[in-house]
Amino acid sequence: MSQERRAPAGTSHAAEAGRARYGERGFTLLELLVVLAILGMLAAIVAPRVLGYLGSARSDSAKIQMKNIATALDLYRLEVGRYPSQSDGLKALVENTTGNAAWNGPYLKRKGAVIDPWGRPYQYRIPGEHGEYDLYSLGADGSPGGEGEDRDVTNW
């Protein structure tokens, strides 16, 4: 027995085929607008949180990088007998700027290791106001102080 579908009386096969296509044509404009509105609302809610995590991730990254730089400074001091001078700066950790025979570096693998997550060099001050040396980043705004992502990241 054939499972053939028959058109109701008084209709042609072409009319039924048109109705079948009509039912399968896809989403209406209204349905698409509703979906886009929902996606827009979700993006408005989620985006600030994601940006907040990105800001704190950079600050956390700066803290970790500063610990690595502090370790390299301590190793430099053990081998050379002193911390790099203010004029040598952190550059002394990646290249022998003074021609010192006791220098056994580089103490940091990359020259970029002395650049903070915002693209500026870490600040180094010797003698320090908070310890033997001060190591800090001025945050996203590049100026002292601030809150949130703009706050300074320090080793003290």
Q: Helices and strands, in N-to-C order?
A: HHEEE
Instruction: Give the N-to-C terminal Cα separation.
Output: 88 Å
User: Which percent range fits the helix content?
Assistant: 40-55%
Major sheet size, sense and barrel closure: 3 strands, antiparallel
3D shape: elongated
How much is the average pLDDT? 84
Tally of helical segments: 2
CATH architecture descriptor: 2-Layer Sandwich
Q: What is the highest CATH level, the class?
A: Alpha Beta
What would the CATH topology be?
Glycoprotein, Type 4 Pilin
Enumerate the strands of the largest sheet in spatial order, edge to edge or round the barrel: 1-2-3
Into how many domains do the coordinates divide? 1
The fraction of residues assigned to DSSP E strands is 5-15%
Cα-based radius of gyration, to the nearest Å: 32 Å
| Structural category | mainly alpha
Count all strands and give the number. Answer: 3
